[in-house]
Amino acid sequence: MNLLILHGYGARPDSNFFQWLSQEFPQCNIPQLPNTNHPSEEQVEFVLKNIIITPDTIILGHSLGVVVALKVIEKLNHQIKGLISVGGFLEPTFKDRKRSFENSFRWSFDFDKVKKNAKHIVILSDRNDYAIPLEQGRALSEKLNATLIETIAEKPHFSGMKEPMVLAAVNFISSGNLLAEWQKHSSSSMCKMVLSRKAASTSSQK
């Protein structure tokens, strides 16, 4: 399994939980995306041109990195192991303030292509997120027929140096056993899990 982490707006490979998570997975790539303080869809082209994405790859996007991940996956010509959205969103509707990238991305996605190209999809939303409304994660889950997990992150917007539910999501896609991973962390993280039809079907086949 190869893990590709795409950071968000203003972030770096050593931001948030990225380095902690990378220690759990030897084959982990956290590229520095271009112009992180003034991002555009240039980041999508950077990933497609510079990163090897195989059928065994899990792409994990954090915040704006989810938008980049969606646009990367819809352009692939093969299926990957999975997609994890951590604090992601579909449109620039924020709780706190406007962002500079609101006009530098096209807010349209080929959801059918993403569903076809990502074997498993997990959406993680933080109930205490200062920026992203819960409705954004729910909309992502509905559009992608994905597994939705609403939890309380270690720090708002999954900005902690360690985020156990993110690790659980990666392990779920690796093992296919969502229930076991959720039970490991549900009491401490106070997580609420909503299984989509796709996820429920996947779990029953394992």
What's the helix and strand layout?
Elements: E1 2-6, H1 18-22, E2 28-29, H2 42-50, E3 57-62, H3 64-73, E4 80-86, H4 111-117, E5 118-126, H5 134-144, E6 147-151, H6 164-175, H7 178-189, E7 192-194, H8 197-205
Parallel strand pairs: 1-2, 1-3, 3-4, 4-5, 5-6
Antiparallel strand pairs: 6-7
Helix pairs in contact: 2-3, 6-7
Strand order of the largest sheet: 2-1-3-4-5-6-7
SSE series? EHEHEHEHEHEHHEH
Write down the overall geometry: globular
The percentage helix is 25-40%
For the largest beta-sheet, the strand count, sense and barrel status come to: 7 strands, mixed
Strand content: 15-25%
Number of DSSP strands? 7
Please mark out the parts with pLDDT under 50 across 5 or more consecutive residues, or reply none.
Answer: 195-206
Gyration radius from CA atoms, angstroms: 15 Å
Mean pLDDT: 90
Structural class: alpha/beta
User: What's the tally of helices?
Assistant: 8
The end-to-end distance, rounded to whole angstroms, is 18 Å
